[in-house]
Amino acid sequence: MINTGDTAFMIICAALVCLMTPGLAFFYGGLVSRKNVLTIMMQSFISMGVVTILWFFIGFSLTFGPDIHGIIGGLKYVCLSGVGMEANPDYGETIPFLSFFSYQQMFAILTPALITGAFADRVNFKSYLVFLIFWSVLIYIPLAHWVWGGGFLQQLGVVDFAGGIVVHASAGLAALASVFFVGKRNIDSKVDTEPHNVTHVALGTALLWFGWFGFNAGGALGANALASTAFINTDIAASTAMVTWLVISWKREKTPSFVGVLTGAVAGLATITPGAGFVKPWAAVIIGLIAGIACYFAVQLRKKLDWDDALDVWGVHGVGGIIGTILLGVFASKEVNGISGLIEGDVYQFGIQLFGTVLASVYAFLVTMLILKVVNKFLPVRVSQEEERLGLDASLHHEEAYHI
What we know:
Elements: H1 4-31, H2 37-64, E1 67-68, E2 72-73, H3 97-115, H4 125-148, H5 152-156, H6 164-182, H7 198-217, H8 225-253, H9 258-272, H10 281-305, H11 313-331, H12 334-337, H13 347-378, H14 385-390, H15 392-396
Antiparallel strand pairs: 1-2
Helix pairs in contact: 1-2, 1-3, 1-7, 2-3, 2-4, 3-4, 3-6, 4-6, 4-13, 6-11, 6-13, 7-8, 7-9, 8-9, 8-10, 9-10, 9-11, 10-11, 11-13
């Protein structure tokens, strides 16, 4: 039976997740140079349009339609005609079909937008649009089906409350693949790599943190105790990771960095995501602590290896998503959501979490590389040196963020 409270809760959660994409636009927009701010913000916003249309016609059905050999869903749900728009116990028996549909749609929108921070300042917009479509169809939709839609990983017992594998690991490894394929930026001065507006980064972080409560708590598919657990775990892990990042960076770099604090919070949010509805709050503290340490040093490793992941998508989202999904297999408590982890003696759950994370990460990396190679055969993925020097706002979009 449809419950109005649960329905209202899920509508709010979907709206909160929707807000995260504009939040990401501000977060990334503040981190890039002023000559590329509109381009990277547009890459986030256009995902809201393109992926919504894709999700409406085929995306949802391929993800959550009847399972076909554990690989993909069938085309059962056709929104244009209204087929399949009944309440379905598989997707939450107290909410309407469309509440679940819209909530999941927001995840599909946000995930490919995360990747854009890695190749900031140097990718052609036309090529990005093609990449956006193919990445959603060939990577996001299959992974979401495997883990959430009845696919083979779900059948094996892999769990992911709100997207450690499906969202963050996939985007992070896709980001790393894009860095290797696209190559390093041609940097004229240090100004080209410094955040042009830290206040925009702060605004973006605030919107992301706020939206993340819907992102994680909505995984409960209702206004219940599990949603409350996911909500508080989200805040605890983010706060712990933020403070941990501050302490480490202050000690090592001799100054308290505001950008570092904000990045640490996002690392904690990404890392708690898969386990938010499976662990107790004390475990969220440990997960946040590990997130702050691991993601900070992942970023330092990236710098040492000279990978030009412009906005550290791999180090924050990729590493955070991977670690969080594995830690779920360590700290999951049967009392919270029926799943036990390694601490409670379930070795299998830990092993299957590790297997699912590695498999999905490798798949996302390899298929992303393949997509970029194919797209580049028809449309140059990278802009020319002159366009990069002028900035993509002016050279591709003929717009300026600031008239001063």
